[in-house]
Amino acid sequence: QDLRPKSLDIKQEELGDMVEKEMASTSKAIEDAVRRIEEMMSQARSESSGVKLEVNERILNSCTDLMKAIRLLVLTSTNLQKEIVESGRGAATTQEFYAKNSRWTEGLISASKAVGWGATQLVESADRVVLHMGKYEELIVCSHEIAASTAQLVAASKVKAEKSSRNLLRLQECSRNVNEMAANVVASTKSGQEQIEEKDTMDFSGMSLIKLKKEEMETQVKVLELEKRLEGERVRLGELRKQHYALAGSYDAAEDGEAKPAPAPRRGILKKPPLAQKP
Q: Which of 67, 197, 221, 251 has the most CB within a 10 Å radius?
């Protein structure tokens, strides 16, 4: 609902002010996100240890790097917008320029909102993951959303910018950096999830004696089932090989036009050689 264009409800002279307001709001949201992540880092260090602390630190560090990249992106985008307005408004005021290009202005506002919303959602998801109340998949989805909203902001800014603009080149570079940092969040989240799941699978320290005995019996049953299945597969493999050798032998004999070689005599039929006579 917040991302819908609201130019019909806003007077033209207020549209330009709304752009600056939304960009400032986005910058504030990112600053708040960075501060929240720092608080989560301190909390994680005091409440967790070992593998969980290592995973939480790696995820939160990647989120911090992403927030820094987004902050630079928003700053560069703001500079580019000022450059666009100054070069395109002529004798008109800033408000008149935004009103004249209302569709572009609406796209800019929507993109800015999307970036700020994505940053906020990422921090909330990271907070839930650190507290073991959320899902790792949420972080991955938020990272993809941030990359998409970044592309939207760059596209909206690029429409009115000069191709040779240095600020445009910087914005495109910032966008690539944001995508790279978002990919790092995804990678650290996936590796952390695998680490935690592997540790939880082998962590028996909190089990009672009865629970341990039950787990032990269930594991023994699984081992016997797997051994039986393995033995069956070995027998199957042996039969497959026997059939393969038989078919291969028949094929070779048919190609040569000769009969199959006689099978080797069994050991029971073999006779001892005659003893040598003394001179």
A: 67
The confidence score (pLDDT) of residue 123 equals 87
**Tokens 């307001």 map to which residue?**
21
| This prediction's pTM | 0.63
Structure tokens at 13: 């002279």
Rounded to 10 degrees, the C-alpha dihedral 119/123/124/128 comes to 150
| The token pair that represents 145 in the structure block | 């959303």
- Whether the CB-CB separation of 73 and 174 falls below 8 Å is answered with yes
Tokens of residue 199, six digits? 């540790």
Ordered DSSP codes for 43-86: HHHHH--HHHHHHHHHHHHHHHHHHHHHHHHHHHHHHHHHHHHH
Question: Residue 257 region, left (φ>0) first, then alpha (ψ -120 to 50), else beta?
Answer: left
Asked if residues 80 and 23 have their Cβ atoms less than 8 Å apart, the reply is no
Residue with tokens 């699978």: 201
Tell me the pLDDT tens digit for each residue of 143-157.
888 888 888 888 888
Provide Rg for the chain, Cα atoms: 35
Query: Structure tokens of 207?
Result: 């089990």
Neighbours of 31 (CB within 10 A): 13
Domain residue extents for the chain: 14-195
Given a cut of 80, whether residue 83 has pLDDT beyond it is yes
Class of domain 14-195: mainly alpha
pLDDT at 13 over 60: no
- Give the pLDDT score at 56: 83
How many other β-carbons are positioned within 10 Å of the β-carbon of residue 66? 29
CA-based torsion, 170, 173, 178, 181: positive or negative: negative
Spatial distance between the Cα atoms of 278 and 25, rounded to a whole number of angstroms: 115
